[in-house]
Design brief:
The chain is mainly beta. It has 3 helices and 29 strands. It is about 5% helix and about 40% strand. The termini are far apart.
């Protein structure tokens, strides 16, 4: 039955994460914490020990009451942090070393990272195939794919284990964010550094070149940046006064400037002010102001903007009317779906749902925020969630044993059949899935 009690005692979702086609929710309960996952499970990213999808939230057995304080999703993998236990776990698709486990095997249950054990993690972010971790003393560690320099190590060599970003020694990194193949970090000085793939200006240095080393973002001089976020190919920053800046790929109006132009130096968003929360999706962006009003802009084919239609939101950011009158306190965007929590503990999801990543108990897309009762305060049944969490035997599989490499179509074959899954090039979903066909 649902748990009752004071607001402080009631079970409530206090953390969100969204990947390409899966979602995580961090649940605070009277007895501890619980991580729930749902959506696509083919690569083990749900953490339940199998490769099955889930269309309703299920607790990850290995993480029940482990003091989890942060959750993050990459395209097809997941990470969580326990401040209490000073531990980071990762699981899911493991190629290129994105899990930081020292190899490229897929992992189907949460795996602790010994190389970061004993460190308190302040911020973690996952891209398509790379991961950033900032510790509470301001150090930055990166691992995973690095073909565009997105690890900030001064090379394009992948890393199977967490590596310190030496170029930022002397800076205290507070917040990190990952796009498909680029990275952002904000320091205690309010500066923003970017590195990785830069074709559309998403590095923010006025150029369209990849950067293999942390590069200071231009146009933010005199601005104290408090928050950073990334979409697939675009970048977002919010200063301590609530001003929002975006730059990078703008072809789908995801930069919230009311046009389709790419931007090479951060440009302030005029249409939304007093911003408290931001999230970037594949081609869309969400922003909530300090009053809790939610706005969206960009590609909306699957309803991921939440405005009640599937039309692109181009002219100006639109308020998400389905949540009008409710104060939004948390937001997150996956590739094509979106999540939000309101002040009263309501959990809402919308957008693409082909793998059940909305948690609605079906696989139907939804073009406006829809309540998920099993994750909403007042109707969360912790006992039932605990009973549904099943112990599993840990196992892992090398990608080469699970997927056939299919040549790129239309260009004679690139020799990197898995590259499209990393988001390197725009590829239709069916074609992208073909390149990851199971053997």
């Amino acid at each position: 039955m649902a748990q009752q009690g004071s607001p402080e005692q009631q079970p409530m979702v206090v953390g969100l994460a969204a990947g390409a086609s899966h979602s995580l929710a961090l649940l605070r309960t009277p007895s501890g914490s619980m991580v729930l996952s749902f959506g696509r499970g083919e690569d083990g990213q749900l953490g339940h020990g199998d490769a099955e999808d889930r269309d309703t939230p299920q607790a990850v057995f290995a993480l029940v009451n482990r003091g989890v304080s942060l959750v993050a999703c990459g395209a097809e993998y997941s990470c969580v942090v326990s401040t209490r236990e000073k531990q980071l776990w990762s699981w899911g698709w493991g190629d290129f070393g994105r899990l930081g486990t020292g190899d490229c095997k897929d992992v189907f249950v949460p795996c602790p990272l010994p190389s970061l054990a004993g460190r308190t993690v302040a911020s973690v972010a996952c891209g398509d195939t790379h991961t950033l971790v900032a510790t509470d003393d301001g150090q930055l560690f990166t691992f995973g794919r690095n073909q565009s320099g997105q690890l900030g190590l001064g090379s394009i060599q992948d890393s199977l284990l967490p590596q310190p970003v030496l170029a930022l020694q002397g800076k205290r990194v507070l917040r990190v964010a990952c796009g498909a193949e680029h990275s952002l970090c904000a320091t205690s000085d309010g500066e923003v550094f970017a590195f990785g793939w830069g074709r559309y200006g998403n590095i923010g240095d006025g150029e369209s070149q990849d950067r293999h080393m942390p590069t200071k973002v231009k146009g933010l001089e005199g601005v104290q940046v408090a928050q950073v976020a990334c979409g697939w190919r675009h970048s977002i920053a919010v200063d301590d006064q609530g001003a929002m800046y975006t730059w990078g790929w703008g072809a789908w109006a995801q930069l919230m400037h009311g046009d389709r132009n790419d931007v090479y130096i951060p440009k302030r968003v005029a249409a939304v002010s007093d911003v408290a929360l931001v999230a970037g999706g594949w081609r869309h962006t969400l922003a909530a102001d300090r009053e809790g009003r939610l706005y969206a802009s960009g590609w909306n084919k699957f309803g991921q903007c939440g405005v009640g239609s599937n039309d692109e939101v181009v002219v100006a950011p639109q308020q998400v009317q389905a949540l009008a009158g409710r104060k939004v306190t948390r937001i997150e965007s996956g590739w094509k779906h979106s999540l939000a929590v309101t002040e009263d503990g309501g959990f809402y999801s919308w957008g693409r749902n082909v793998n059940g990543q909305l948690g609605h108990g079906n696989t139907e897309d939804c073009n406006q925020p829809t309540l998920v009762p099993s994750l909403s305060a007042g109707s969360i049944d912790v006992d039932a969630l605990n009973l549904a969490a099943r112990p599993t035997v840990a196992y892992s599989v090398a990608p080469s044993d699970r997927y056939a490499v299919v040549p790129e179509s239309g260009d004679g074959g690139s020799g990197d059949g898995l590259a499209a899954a990393s988001g390197r090039d725009e590829v239709p979903d069916a074609q992208r899935d073909a390149k990851r066909s199971k053997v």
